[in-house]
Amino acid sequence: MKTFTLMLRILRVSLRALARNKMRTFLTCLGIIIGVGAVIAMVSIGAGAKAAVESRFASMGTNLLFVGPGNRNVGGVRTGFGGWNTLTVEDAEALRNLSAVESISPSVSARAQVVYAAKNWNTSVQGNGESYTEVRKWEMESGVFFDESQVKGAAKVCVLGADVKTNLFEGEDPLGKTIRIKRVPFVVIGVFKSKGQSGGFGSRDDIISIPYTTCMKRIQKAEFVGSIDVSAVSATRTAEAKQQIEELLRERHRIAPGAADDFSVADMAEIAEGAADATNILTILLGSIASISLLVGGIGIMNIMLVSVTERIREIGIRMSIGAKARDILLQFLSEAVVLSLLGGILGIILGVGISKLLKFIPLFASLTTVVSPGSVLLAFFFSASVGIFFGFYPARKASKLDPIEALRYE
Known about the structure:
alpha+beta, elongated, two-stranded antiparallel sheet, 13 helices, single chain, six-stranded mixed β-barrel, 55% helix
């Protein structure tokens, strides 16, 4: 009880001392306010990017696998993964028969200028199989997706993403209309339901989907498929499906035992884990950069406290002469530094949360998702308190070591 009363008295004296010069107190807190605000805002941006990535992968399903071309060594010339076309339409068709595989969709892609009447738009043109919507869990807003007969017949039909519909048709119903992709006419038979932004991956609605056979013959003039999307029978059989795919492709590509694959198979869990690691690194990086502001704020507190000790040497001498111990002087100046940093921390939290909430109203940052977590707020608050203790200790110790006689003689 006695200790508590002593601490209250010291805190009261500290607040009175800080209140004597309100402007200097505010300017001293400013570094901590900006530092805490920056930490919370930056961490909220990183956490928002992570949440957006996790949401995107969750919407694709947990039983999705991606088969892509791998590396290859021909005549001593080696390529990295994806540097050589190794997947064929026949490979994709062979995967359909695996017991752990439910559906497959070969994919090829290209960018092209798309024209409708007097309007044009540059977008991603994706050649897909008839099971694409089932494998990737895409839903239709209107019309239909192309079927197996249209894929086999290399029909000139297409399905639009929401962004393409908006930019080419501006409210007009696109179904039944004809657009031109690289001067080839395509009839619009459907429109995808909007998927929105994907947190750093761009818009998922800026695409046109056409049969992969049509894309290979008329758009890309390609003999190989770029990748194969595969859905396993269930999430629990994803690993089994991956093993079956690898064994079948090694056999079809006549890869000798011990030799490296000329293809790659990745499942959604691996990709999601990699993306989560990347966003975690981004969050740590942003938080670390912002925390530099806190250190600068702490140095500002130390400077002002040193000035305060110099200004109050005579006051310290008087207090010591009437019985104050060195510990009391130390606690008083240390409590002033902690009060400064805690006050800055509270105002910084308000600033950081406010910035996180206001970012979506600024057009440049409207696509960013921000998540303010209680953990980041508490971390910033306790870090600011630690800064006050660390940088306030030296001035406080200097004050407590003053000789009372010399302090009373100080002019």
